[in-house]
Amino acid sequence: MSDRDLSQAGFETRAIHSGYEPDPTTGAVIPPIYATSTYAQDGVGGLRGGYEYSRSANPTRTALESTLAALEGGARGFAFASGLAAEDTLTRALCKPGDHVVLPDDAYGGTFRLFDKVEQGWGLPHSPADVSDVDAVAAAIRPGETRMVWLETPTNPLLTIGDIAAIAEVAHDAGALLVVDNTFASSYLQQPLALGADVVVHSTTKYAGGHSDVVGGAIVVRDADLAERIGFHQNAIGAVAGPFDAWLTLRGLKTLALRMERHCDNAERVVDFLTSHPAVGDVIYPGLETHPGHEVAQRQMRRFGGMVSFRVTGGEEQALAVCAATEVFTLGESLGGVESLIEHPGRMTHASVAGTELEVPSDLVRLSVGIETPDDLVADLARALG
Ligand SMILES: *Cc1c(COP(=O)(O)O)cnc(C)c1O
Whose CA is nearest to atom 5 of ligand 1? Predict the structure, then answer.
């Protein structure tokens, strides 16, 4: 829909101007929510704007998909009903039964469940790898069988960093594709396609949407053949983003850069506070020089993000008490919204991996640091930690 050439424009300009030109009849500067399932044709096959049915394409979704592609530096973007819908569609587009997948050994729990309980039953075995160790990823690849290497960086909730460029090389050497789940960093902080990844996926529910008011997912690719296969599967499977969801996500993306800068500022303030607090043990944040992935993160991320994890010195009981005591940090799952959230991964987001190799420490607390007044966030944590 957009005919302006924004390929040389900066991130913020692309976020605001990609994907849509002011409406030629009304001048509307923001794409309408095209709440329509079908489109009138001028004679059989005479499509007016290229649209024939809204599972295949819808103008509000098109505006979002173009913006997603522009922000990741990709050729095409695709918007889905959720992050997991995007992952499932991607897997069916790229793999066939008998192929093999390498997964991070601390993959997002929903991603692990999808591959372990759904894709495996379809005939797609998977192997875990520690993505902070390139040799471990290389060792998990089965040449000739591994079709996808899946990478998250930073991971959830331990914020492990994987070297995108190095892992792209080992994947490509073995004839596999590298998929990067860029949800935690967002397109603003990290550009996996430029580092050699073949596919980027997002849960746009998180930083992309950014306001905790919509669930959605995205895929962005550089290669035209891959784009065609994913487009075919998006339409054939049909797990697409509806027009209102697409509109909310597009609205969120316009302020992604501003929000991420503030998420990072506030996270740094919180990290400063936590590292000197007597009731706090390890503070896990890729921006800390003590973080084992700090150097790689510095190379591949613009800044270090809004997610912070820490361990308390008083064990699980204290971790649960801190989560119950904050007032500005809301106790809840999910992340990436304007409001700060606190959670206990062991009992909440990661309860389903207890007893497996993905189990997380019981004294761990995870923060999604929002964009509130930083002094209020620090005061809230100070009160909760006692
Ligand atoms: C939330 C999340 C997903 C799944 O996305 P949904 O929108 O909840 O389906 C995938 N990967 C990561 C890293 C996530 O945080």
Answer: 83
Model confidence pLDDT, tens digit, residues 87-104: 999 999 999 999 999 999
Pocket residue to mutate for ligand 1, from 91, 206, 353, most atoms within 8 A of Cβ: 206
Bridge partners for 114 per DSSP: none
- Tell the residue nearest (CA) to atom 1 of ligand 1: 203
Instruction: Write out the chain in H/E/C secondary structure.
Output: CCCCCCCCCCHHHHHHHCCCCCCCCCCCCCCCCCCCCECCECCCCCECCCCCECCCCCHHHHHHHHHHHHHHCCCEEEEECCHHHHHHHHHHHHCCCCCEEEEECCCCHHHHHHHHHHHHHHCCCEEEECCCCHHHHHHHCCCCCEEEEEEECCCCCCCCCCCHHHHHHHHHHCCCEEEEECCCCHHHHCCHHHHCCCEEEEECCCCCCCCCCCCCEEEEECCHHHHHHHHHHHHHHCCECCHHHHHHHHHHHCCHHHHHHHHHHHHHHHHHHHHCCCCEEEEECCCCCCCCCHHHHHHHCCCCCCEEEEEECCHHHHHHHHHHHCCCCEECCCCCCCCCEEECCCCCCCHHHCCCCCCCCCCEEEEECCCCCHHHHHHHHHHHHC
Question: What's the CA gap between 244 and 33, in Å, rounded?
Answer: 6
pLDDT at 144 > cutoff 90: yes
Lookup: tokens for 256: 């992604």
Residue 1 is predicted with a pLDDT of 43
Q: Is the CB of 108 under 6 A from ligand 1?
A: yes
Residue range 16-43, pLDDT digits in tens: 999 899 998 999 999 999 999 999 999 9
Bridge partners (DSSP) of residue 101 are 126, 148
- Tokens representing 305 are 């993000």
By annotation, the residues acting in catalysis are 55, 108, 181, 206
Average of per-residue pLDDT across 228-243: 98
